[in-house]
Design goal:
By secondary structure, this protein is α/β, with parallel strands linked by helices. It is built from nine helices and twelve strands.
Length: about 250
Amino acid sequence: MLTVSQLGCARGGCQILTGIEFQLRSGEVLAVLGTNGAGKSTLLATLSGELSHPEGDIKLAGRPLAAWPAAQRARRLAVLPQSSSLAFAFSVEEVVLLGRLPHAAGHDEDRRVVAEVMHATDIDHLRQRSYLALSGGERQRVHLARVLAQIWDAAEPACLLLDEPTASLDLAHQRLILQSAREIARRGNAVLLVLHDLNLAACYADRLLMLDRGCVAALGTPWEVLQAERIQQVFGVEVEVARHPRLDCPLIIA
């Protein structure tokens, strides 16, 4: 779905990413891990086309990312950045409807999709509230619903990029959002998300991409990546890796 080859990117004259290579597959949730400053958000911004990359290639569905017309790309690639701002007193429903702008599906279809994504992100009860009156966690879920609406009914497999989608959320809504990501992947789409919580990544992602100082430190299943020695090397923290009592995934104990 998304193929990255020898990707390099600089910001402010400083090299941030070097030699990044991986594939994001249809039907997969891939979590990107790493310390602050490892290059996670820079990677996502580059994959979305927000940042240019003088080195390497990015292909979406086998086609260079830069070769996609904007409207077509918007129907196949949706992005939730680390922070989203809105200065107008739109209602929650109006904000979510913005995700339907790349489509020409008609009023009834747009309303159906909006209703479904609002339910998936647990914001039905906020439908008529002003966006400006919401808490930080509520705003986060509204913007997630907006990007979900962008690809919810995609005719072909789409790609969803989420930068720290669980930030500002309580435990219940963290679980809800990550379950929604899994549902998006189950439909044949591809999901890449940046996470700080290693245990959430282990529970919900099919594969993990661990970055260290702008390079790939590890890529593989949670069991392959989340090894105690590697975590200590990358994060500088001694941990114990155990088996989750209910799931077939590692449990990281600091």
